[in-house]
Amino acid sequence: MAADLVVTNAVVYTVDEARPWASSLTVTGGKVVALEDVDRGPGTEVLDLGGAFVLPGLVDVHNHHAMAGRADLFELTFGADASFGDILDAVRARAATLGPDEWLTGGAWASTLVETMSSASSRRALDDAAGGRPVSLTDDSRHNRWVSSRALELAGITEATPDPAGGVIVRDGGAPSGLLLEAAGVLVERVTGALTPAQHRSASRRAIEILHGFGVTAFQDAGVSTDILGALHSLDIAGELDAWVVSSLLVNDPVFGFDPIGAPLLEIAGRYRTEHHRPDFVKIFLDGVPPTRTAAFLEPYLPDDTHGGCYHGSTTMPPEELTDWLLKAASAGFSAKVHCTGDASVRQFLDAVARVRAAGFAETRFQVAHGQFVHPDDLPRFAELGVAADISPFLWVPGVIPDAIAEVLPAARASRMQPNRALLDMGALVAGGSDWPVSESPNAWEGIAGLVTRQDPHRRRPGALWPEQAITVAEAIEVFTLGGARACGLDDVTGSLTPGRSADFVVLDRDPFRTADLAATRVLETWFAGRRVFRR
Fold first, then answer.
1. Are β-strands 145-147 and 167-172 bridged in parallel, bridged antiparallel, or unpaired?
2. Digit-coded pLDDT (tens) for 295-340
3. Which residues partner with 5 through β-bridges?
């Protein structure tokens, strides 16, 4: 059979240890069939790359693609470097385009503004900028919201409203300030209005277009609704889903306000499965985020007036409940991604996985999502228990979020985030995720640069964060290709340019092994299943 496509005159890094380098690829039926120039026929497309560098399509093991697509198409967006005044100016400009009581949603404001957002005077400034409209703006973690007085009113949040389980209505003089932490934000999320099915499809399609521009051909969405599942199913049935997608089904939901979640969602997940979409994981939020002291730690936070000097944070569920959920999921054929940002939540999750493994579930995939802080005693347990570390270097290189964490943890602890070198040396599987739109961009080369240098890839902040934990370029590339594919169960179809796998590859503007500026690497072309889906 004649080949559909031959890629020739290239420098191909396959991320396959059996044969890491090649100069050509032959593609038939959307799959790599040879690492040579073979089987040309009269209809074969020949792609002569003139010596350009080729890699497997990148894998983003942790993003919220539909949220990012929605933000790009329908919401107000501003960077985490926006000041309080900048945010008000942006709200004022956007509000001028809206109807008198139309919702204004968007984000993401910096975690370092938590104290500023905690006052009634700040809420009144937001009211003024919005012309009295309902406003809900998320922070850079996407766990917390700053809302206007009209939004509080529509959500029914008053001075008498108790804090919901897993959330805090931050108050000023007893009245809601407008800052809603964790599950308290869900009270507002439920009244902001829903997208139509067509808008959900547009959001997913737009997000995947953006991902293609950065060379991403496979990803795991870290928390989906039935609307998102329906959009992915609809796109694939129509032949428009040009990516491998793994979805994570929410067991608990302190952030998004989706319904259904838990057992009812797991029961219907199978109806959304298609060729390119695998709803294979459950997602559990086991804690929150350090800047708002909702992450669970073995040692206490720095003292403050609200929590005193012995506050450790807490997990969202006790160990028995977590273990029970993991056993239920494994019994139903689901793997699990568990959000853990503090070392106490990481330990609780590893303990639960040990019980699940002992119950006979040897093949179930488990991921610690984020795992910024891991106690040294727990590092070897990742490899021992077969738990992947889902890491987001976009979030912990020097920048706004590390600055916010440094305000709540002792300096010696705050500076020891993401022990990636140690995890790899101990044999753990490490997989790269952007957490976009928590990160401002899903550009994996920013993440790869952060892994290698432990520095701000944009060079806006000086210094390096725990530089002893740097990894090599080859290791970092594998983290964002085969490592991610293995972690989310896509290594049977993608992650390396191995004969038999999908012909997912990217053409770069430089050799990443020979550049002095990894973060500046640009994708010239992206191919999915032997079809070009992006060209710069």
1. unpaired
2. 999 999 999 988 999 999 999 999 999 999 999 999 999 999 999 9
3. 27, 45
